[in-house]
Amino acid sequence: MKIGWKLQNLLLKKAQDLEFEEIWLSVLNRNERAIKFYKRSGFEKIGNHDFQIGKENFEFMAMRKKL
Fold first, then answer.
1. Which residues is 50 bridged to in the sheet?
2. Which domain holds residue 46?
């Protein structure tokens, strides 16, 4: 159904309409499927960051795309 592509394209179009120069996102490091999706969409890795909920720590990848 390509819902992910459709939603992403809608968001990117809105960001362009608002004259944003780039867009950032965070994705869980172990979510390889999502990382591949974003890379195919032109996002690039710009770093890593952690997020803690209670005692559990989650590692994320920060990505960006120039618009």
1. 59
2. 3-66
Q: How many domains does the chain have?
A: 1
Provide the pLDDT for residue 50: 96
| CATH code, domain with 20 | 3.40.630.30
Query: Pseudo-torsion of CA 41, 17, 27, 1, nearest 10°?
Result: -60
* pTM, to two decimals: 0.87
Cα-Cα-Cα-Cα torsion 49, 9, 66, 28, nearest 10 degrees, comes to 10
User: pLDDT, tens digit, for every residue of 22-39?
Assistant: 999 999 999 999 999 999
